[in-house]
Amino acid sequence: MRVKLDSEKCQGHNRCYALAPELFDVDDYGTAVLLIDGEIPSELEDKARLAVANCPEYAITIDED
Amino acid sequence: MTIDDVRQHRDWANDLDHADPEYNRNAPEVWEHLRESGCPVAHSDLYGGMWAPVTHELVKEVAYDTDHFSSQGVIVSNARPIIEAPVGPAPPITSDPPFHQIARRLLLPPFAPKQIDPWEKEIRTLCRGLLDEMGEIDEGTTIIDAAVQYAQHIPVNVIARMIGLPTTDDELFRGFVHAVLEAVDLPAEERIAAIEPLAEYLDAKVAEHQANPRDNLLDYLLNVEIEGNKLSSEHVRGSVLLLLIAGIDTTWSAIGSSLWHLGTHADDLARLVAEPDLMPFAIEEFLRAYAPVTMARLVKEDYDFHGCPMKANDWVLLPFPAANRDPEEFEDANEVILDRKENRHSAFGLGIHRCLGSNLARLELRVAVEEFIARFPSFELAGDMTWSVGQVRGPRVMPFRVLKVNPAHTGS
Predict the structure, then answer these.
(1) Nearest to B315 by CA among B185, B174, B195, B183
(2) Which chain B residue has the Cα nearest residue A27?
(3) Bridge partner residues of B114 (DSSP)
(4) Three-state DSSP class for residue B42
(5) Are B177 and B248 in contact (CB under 8 A)?
(6) Residue B402 — φ and ψ, nearest 5°?
(7) What dihedral do alpha carbons B70, B76, B80, B83 form, nearest 10°?
(8) The domain defined by B3-409 carries CATH number 3.40.50.720
(9) Short-list B383, B348, B137, B163, CA closest to B254
(10) Contact between B294 and B19 (Cβ < 8 Å)
């Protein structure tokens, strides 16, 4: 599984950072930053799905292999 | 009111008035009635013309469309803003692109999560102090007011400290909030006059801080620069006005509505007390179901919006709380599900104007609910409550009978 973050869509709601801090950080402006640019460790897959399901701007998507 | 009474009360589809006290009292029923009657965009001739989409899809469309809709006015009233786009009277909430982003980027860093998190301890101490001030509580007998004695004091104290305004002026600030957000149906001239004392107060405070610099948000705004230039005094005053007004009764309402839910749903209260791990999800669910803030836009030029003939300078209400109850976007939208795992609610708006203070609001809401139920693990609504009037929706009077006090939860 891979996670994609569309920075153009992100408005800084910070839901991903709250729910999956292993996968997302936020910069000084509150914009999300993806921490893992490759394959997501299997133990973090649920958290990745949670981040997708709670982004109000639909800025996060998942590529299932 | 039953949904039938709501239907009978007024013609919501063609004569909507969000300042009718029955609107906030029965808002979920009004939105459901509008959606069921096939009217996704309500209209009114009040306020010089007003529209109100009630589905998630249409609210989102307006929020994203800065070409046709301006933010220079965000509170519907009979007046129109005096300071025009792109800055507007309270930047950045009243600013349009491209100036909006410049004004917003100045204020984003102080409200980013890592700057806000350290306030948790102070907020917790404040909440415990308010609970202590309620005095001796007899289980099953004592009635407290969770809006008047608790919720209304929390955000005003925190934002005053952040900005650098005296917390002892809190009663005055609540008066300003009432003038700006609730007294919206006055004639234009009376409304402008009613807001004048707020502008005078802020001008005096800005002058005080200029003469005697301190280390807080007001001073930050006085010193920060855009391309080598300090902000105009109108910009500083407008941003302080925004932080003060937007930071008070919004979160006060969210705290009140969340506690109202718990005071009227004993099963959910017991579950949340027993399963504290639910709290992060429960807070988001309260924000979804009881989102306090409806925003507004002004139509820039005559525009046909899905068959609605909008005229230049018409208002468009943006009821994010209605979007949050849209069954097309949320499963069991009218049910409060404490552990809802899929929750793309828009309590803090959508698009470029996402609430700047959302991290602070979430922190205050979570700590306020945690501390209240830690002190009072069982309570129930014990009388008539009063809801606010206008674009911010929340309890203003809310008597609770305390059924259980936790003796181990002590004050500050």
Answers:
(1) B185
(2) B112
(3) none
(4) strand
(5) yes
(6) -80, 120
(7) -60
(8) no
(9) B348
(10) no
Interface probe with B: pick from A9, A13, A17, most Cβ of B within 10 Å: A13
What kind and span of H or E run contains B201? helix B188-211
> Tokens 């959302």 appear where?
B358
CB atoms A29 and B352 under 8 Å: no
SS3 content of chain A, % helix, strand, coil (to 5): 25, 20, 50
Smallest Cα–Cα separation from B53: which of B410, B377, B299, B381?
B299
* Alpha carbon separation from A40 to A36, B255, B330 (Å, rounded): 7, 37, 28
Q: Do A12 and B280 make contact, defined as CB atoms within 8 angstroms?
A: no
Q: Is the reported ipTM for this assembly greater than 0.90?
A: yes
Return the amino acid letter for B45. Answer: D
State pLDDT tens for residues A1-56.
999 999 999 999 999 999 999 999 999 999 999 999 889 999 999 999 999 999 99
Amino acid in the structure at residue B363:
L
Q: Which residues, in sequence order, are CB contacts of B165 under 8 Å at separation 6+?
A: B173, B205, B218, B244
Contact B350 A57 (CB under 8 A): yes
